[in-house]
Structures are given as C-alpha cells and as structure tokens.
Amino acid sequence: MTSAFRTRIVRTLTLPLDAESFPGGLPSFLVRDDVLCWTRREAGLVGFGEIARFTATGPERFLEADIWWRHLVLEADIADSVGCPGTGPVAFGSFAFSKVSAHESRLIVPEIVVGLRDGNAWLTQLTFDDGELTEAGARAALDRWLGTPGVVPSAEPAADPAAVSEVPARTATLSTGSLGEADWMAAVAAGVAEIRTGALEKLVLARDIVASVPDGVNAAEILRQLAVRYRECWTYGVDGLVGSTPEMLIQVEGRTAQARVLAGTLDRRDADGMAGSPLEFAERVLAGSEKQRHEHDIAIQSLTTQLAPFSEAMNAHSEPFILELPNVWHLASDVKAELTEVEGHVPTCLALINALHPTAAVCGTPTTVAGALIRKLEHLDRGPYAGPVGWLDAAGNGEWGIALRGAVIESPEAVRLYAGCGIVEGSVPEAELAETWAKFRPMLEALGISS
C-alpha cells in the first residue's frame, strides 16, 4: 500500500442506469479479460480499471485488509443517488486459502463499477483526482473501458443458456498438477487412516490440473459461459482468478448476515439409467447417505459455532436441501444471523471472514489438525483456491463466496484448475477422484475442453 492513499481522499459518483437497456444483465458487460466480476442470476457487480490496491500475506491478512479499507473510505467524498448495497466506494477481493501461503491476498478498487440488484441498475465512478465528477464523465469513462459508443455494450452475450450452450472445441492438453491421480488417491487413503485414529473428523483434500490452450485463454468468454450456465452460483473474476462458486461464505447487508453451506456431492451423470426422476435419485443417494449427512453436519456446525459470538439471533435449515447444478447435486443449508455489536460496533464482513475462514467445508475439523494434514498430504499451495472471494462497500455490506469450481489463469495459454473433496471415515479414494472430475467440469466446459 502506498502511504499517499491514506492522505488522498477517494471520491465517488453513483448514478442510476436503465436496467432495461441491457436485457442480458451484467454478463453483457463481460467483454474484457481484465474485468472484475461478481454476478448471480444476471445481477451483481462488474468493475473496470484500478485506482488502488492492497496486498498482504500471512495470518493477519483479513484484518490488515479491513483496516486499510476502513481508512480508505473513512473520509470518502460520496455522491450516491441510488443508495443500495454495492453503490458508492467498492472493492473487489480475493484471499489466499492458507495463512502460510506465499500468494498475495488482495483488495482492488476499480475506476468504474456497473451494478444491478433487484431491478435497480447503476454506474459508479471512483477517483482520487480533485476534478468534478459528472454523469457525462462517468459514462465516457465506461465507454473507454468497453471500447464501444454509449453506456451499454452489445447485448449479444445475453443471459440465455441456449446462446452459449456450445463453446468451440479447443485444441488443448491437460497435464498433472502437484500430484498424479494415483498419488492423490494415496493421499486420500492416508487421510482416511488419520480420521480412523480419531485425530480428526473430516479432511478436505484438493488437487490441481493444468490446461494448456495454444489458441489462448479468453477470460471474458470463460466468465460469460459460467455466468449463464451456472446462474444459481456466484461467478467471480478477480485478477486472473475465475470461477463460479455454489458456496457463500458470508453475505452482509446492514446487520443481517447469511451463508450457504455445502457438503455432500453427487455427479449428475450418476443418475443416467437410474429408476425414478433424477431429483429423486439425488435425494435418495445424498439425503439418505449417512456418510454425506455426517459430512454436511460437520460443515454446518463449523460455521454456526464460529458465527455465534457475532450474532444475537441465528437460524439454519433443520434439514438440508438438494441444490441442483448443471454438473452435480449438493446437500445445502442456508444460515441467517442478526449481527450484534462487538466492542461497540457491528463487525465488518472482513472481520467475520477472519473468524469463519477456513470452514470445515474447505478445510476439515478440527481446523488446526486438518490444516496441518492438508499441507502434509496435498503437496500443493492452493493460492486463492478455496479462499474468500467477493466484494465490499463503504457501508459495511459485502458478499464473499468461497473460490471453488475455479481456476487461476497463469499465462495467456495456461490455466490451473482446482477441485477438492470432503474426506470422512467412509470415503473411498476412487469415488473421491471421480468427484474431482465432476467439479472440474464447469471450468473445462467453459474452456471448450471435453471432459
């Protein structure tokens, strides 16, 4: 962080847009590979450019980022005629999964933000300059980033799954990441053996593969594909980290916090040829499985235990529901909490993330034991994979998912994909390996690689 950011004042202008002028929703604005993105059901936030950035590593990365952001917006000059979550000053962010990772966690403050929420659309310009902010200037700045005349880009990437159902097949090769399949299954077996000793209840093990794409990696196309194919997920793009996560770590609006917890996975291809409807099959196999229910219960207990000190009231589904995605089904539960004041103020979303991450859904339980075993068995620095990704505003609102079903674009022709599985006593290495391929599928399809 440059010290000048502490003395210079960020200034923002937020003005309404006509949501009907871009019927494709925010995917219509995913036209640049350097776009910042957080969308679900065609709504959310898209950012262009960068006026400030914070980076950090280590166990205090969330709290250091929180302090930086609060200093930045403390004296901000905010003109906001829309006034809803995501207007005014906004930062996009992604954080490393591990406190010992060398990967830099980051907050990025864009120059231009386009937002869409509950039928309201808006445009925000952010700057440190002293000149007057005007509607004409904000629209012109958006034009420059889009490279098109007028505020709204081409509506061609509409939110119609049929419009993006086919991605041209790419000439690509997949190569082994940190561990080959046999070695990774051996790691799963070693994890099961540790669980059977009673050292821990659950362990989440991840693996990586590398896709080499000689034709070049098109980040904007990947994001458009994911946003349309996986409408029920949160599609994210931050500094080369791209993906579409089904899991919300924490969403804060005013004093209300919400989370979506997933644990328990079934490949939709497993239903082929089975009796009954596909959803009935999923309910029978997932909700009726002691192994899957045990894994899910651990994940729920992990989140609610960590969130309880910040809450004056909390509720969660008594029974998990089946979340239906194009590639898999999940056991899912939504948790809602009313935040209480801690040391005189309502906790910020980054303070909550500091308490919640890593959850049992992406690490295991007990967390300390699982984390140490992950480092021993994975032979992998997860970087931002399975870390928090999302956005926050100056009013304390924010949405932070867990960076799952994603990848890191490492070069113009190479993408590293990640997938992980929850390991419990009843886990079978071959089944867990198959589950990782089901979880790689969204990114492989968005890249145009058959799986």
Give an account of the 3D structure:
- The longest helix is centred in the C-terminal third of the chain and has 19 residues, at 429-447.
- This protein has helices spanning 4-7, 61-74, 135-146, 181-196, 219-229, 278-287, 290-307, 349-356, 367-378, 429-447, and strands at 11-17, 36-40, 43-48, 52-56, 77-80, 90-94, 105-109, 112-117, 120-127, 173-176, 202-212, 234-238, 241-245, 248-253, 256-267, 311-316, 321-324, 328-339, 364-365, 388-393, 398-402, 406-411, 414-423.
- A hairpin with a 2-residue loop joins strand 2 and strand 3.
- Helix content is 27%, strand content 32%.
Mean pLDDT figure: 90
Number of separate helices? 10
Number of strands: 23
Instruction: Tell me the span between the first and last alpha carbons.
Output: 42 Å
CATH topology of the largest domain: Anthranilate synthase
Give a short account of the largest sheet. Answer: 13 strands, mixed
Strand content: 25-35%
Number of domains: 2
Q: What is the CATH domain class of the largest domain?
A: Alpha Beta
What labels would you give this structure?
10 helices, 13-stranded mixed β-sheet, single chain, 2 domains, Anthranilate synthase, about 450 residues, ten-stranded antiparallel β-sheet, disordered N terminus, alpha+beta, about 25% helix
